[in-house]
Fold these 3 entries.
Entry 1:
Amino acid sequence: MTGSRAWRLAWCAAGLLLVGCASAAAQTSTASSTYLQQYASAGGALDTATTTWDTLGKGLVTTGTNTVANEAPIDAAYARALDTFSNALLAIQFPASTRNDVHNLVNAAGAVRNDLAGVASGAVSTTQFVNDEANLQNAINIVQHELGLESSTPIAGA
């Protein structure tokens, strides 16, 4: 599979994953817990970055301009957003019972962040990228379940 064709598949798969941290956290508006508010803020920023990354990537695919050179800045911006999300999570004082799963979530975000550096060029397989994204989505949902939140909703209609 060529890098370009594989990347189109990765964009489609990516569009089916990752978004909803903030919306799920917002459902607990009556909760006054600081860690839930901080999680909602970090999740909201990641939701925005994920939607932007997905929209820009789909735009490149639609226009036939999804080259490594064009995808690299989009992927780099999303990688920075994943790093910011991870750092924000590590700074939040979650309940002790949740901390291990928060660290698993940070590790899953790190795997996707690392994949972004090589997926467009073919240095990282589409399968690995999609699997790491699925692991990230699962890790988000585990943490949200532990926090009493609903599961994160993937990007609809991707």
Entry 2:
Amino acid sequence: MAEEKKTASKKSEPKAEKKSEFFEYKGKPLVRSGKSLYYGDINDPYVVCLTVKSEKEEGNTKIADLVGVQLIATDETISPKDRIIKKSEKNGLFTALDLGAAWLERQLKKG
């Protein structure tokens, strides 16, 4: 009878699976809003904002050509102008995202 209780209690415990609602890159959320992409967890002190400034046609598809990259503090007590820690422009979305990911990782390690 003791074994039956153990089995029953194991079955009744739901397994907690964390499902992400967002795409992820290197374990952090990547969210698109219009021509901007935000990379990082909004609960962290910093995130990266990628803004597509120009596009080029590749067949029937538009590809991001020039992309602005900004490392931004998420602290709302800081003025919007002072929140920008670093900024740059890169050719191509992957290059911009890779740079932003490196900046974010370093900044989060600094604190």
Entry 3:
Amino acid sequence: MEYRAAIDISSTGKHFDNAQLTIGEEGIKTPAGFFDYADIIRFVPNNFRVYIYTVNNTTLTVSMLGHSFAGFCEELAACFNARSLQALFIEEECIMDCQGEFQIPVTSVSPAEQGRGRIALYPDAVCILPESSQAVRIPLCFASNISLDGYIIRITMRTGEVYYFGKMGYDTKPFAERCIKYAGDSVKKRNALLSQIEVSAPYTGKGLFRTADEDKYWASAFGQYCCAVELFTDENTATYLYRFTDRPLFSYRLEEAMEAVGSHREIIFMDDDKLRQNPLYRMAVHRSEAVRFLRSCTAGRIIHTESHDEKLRQFLSGN
């Protein structure tokens, strides 16, 4: 939708009166240029102004919206959250969608965040969608415990991170009950699917992508401080190599990253230059600590040629 407002751009000092802004599916079009949602850190409505902070230290201040202020804020939040859901690769139908309070733990690139925002339940995950770039998808299959304490739901992950959310009125208890149910269903289904997968040497580990994607899986082979990962999908073209210092941590993050990318597996091996050219994938990497971790461990790949097996053996042996 189009709006008329005053705009100030901090990085250039430029001011626009009665300027036209258009909120779209991928970003905001202004006289000062296009602001992609991938480059927005957060937006803050305050005193009839909207402050939009970006990754390049530019602040876009939108004011003089008049009676359109509330509508502008609502549409900006809705479009920004919809784009975040695309970046989290949400494909399943939403089960519950509520407004509530949340607390997101610290990550490698972001401090802990708390506030009020949209909280949505899907068959395999809970999504917390603040008015910032810290939207998260919490995979229920990796939760070690889900509990309800008063009006607050707590999800503890197997690696120790804890997510808090709740105070959703009468929806709080049903939301918690459904979280527990769908977490159990997800774990049960994944275990059943994994039990049907057979791997052969040198591969000893195995895993799934999304729970609903039953036909695709991956296998892992470990050396002392290295790992080779084979993707068993429709595009079997290479084996992906990684180096690490902490095997248990790497194993957890490998599983979480593969689950996070789902059918968009190119993210795990796409080089940084190509990633910068794909705003949606940049959003995806920013919103998943596991994907960032896996990408940071990359050590190349082995193309499926006649020399593949020998190169794989050399890599795993440390040569």
